[in-house]
Amino acid sequence: MRYSLLAGGKRVRPMLAIAACEMVGGAEAAAVPVACAVEMVHTMTLIHDDLPCMDDDDLRRGCPTNHVAFGVSTALLAGDALLALSFEHVARGCVEHGVPADRALRAVAELANSVGTAGLAAGEVVDIASEGADVDLATLEYIHVHKTARLLEAAAVCGAIVGGGGEEEIEAIRRYARYVGRAAVPAALICITAC
């Protein structure tokens, strides 16, 4: 788990969570558990995406992927454990930082939704089903919005939730983050089509 979680990266999602929390008047410390949890979820997606049954990648950020370094079974379990740990981290961390239970629960639900059938899992299923096919732009956009943009959106929304944002503030941040996530999609599409 540590091998992949601490392997580097831009950490955009955690930054969005902290910034959104501060934007609604919350303390940075309140958002740290969410920021860490979002990075755990993101790392899980990378570990699982690299597996032989998915994209079968041997390198990630210039280093051997988790399954190459530790074996497929260990990589699968590391990803699963990171996902479970992410939800535990939000729950326990919010309590430690005085975030009310209703906000912590709402953040957990938001994060879970971004990974499930309304987020990553949906995008991954369409990605796998489209492998080797000539897909149109709408399908490619669907895949990357669900695999990339949805978790970016959840990061910011979770930060706003734990920061105590009102409904209007949370929805404004959701819209902003959705645009940020969608802006990341063209870069991914350009890389896929050019590489």
- Low-confidence runs of at least 5 consecutive residues: none
Summarize model confidence as the mean pLDDT. 92
Alpha carbon gap, first and last residue? 29 Å
Helix fraction by DSSP (H/I, runs of at least 4): over 70%
Spatial order of the strands in the main sheet? 1-2
- Number of DSSP-assigned strands: 2
What form results from the Cα inertia axes?
globular
Strand portion: under 5%
Order of helices and strands: HHHEEHHHHHH
**Rg value:** 17 Å
Structural class: mainly alpha
Helical stretch tally: 9
Strand count, sense and closure of the main sheet?
Answer: 2 strands, antiparallel
Fold and architecture overview:
By secondary structure, this protein is mostly helical. The protein has nine helices and two strands. It has a two-stranded antiparallel ribbon. Helix 2 crosses helix 8 (137-162), helix 5 packs antiparallel against helix 6 (101-115) and helix 6 (101-115) runs antiparallel to helix 8. It is globular, with a radius of gyration of 17 Å. The chain starts with a helix and ends with a helix.
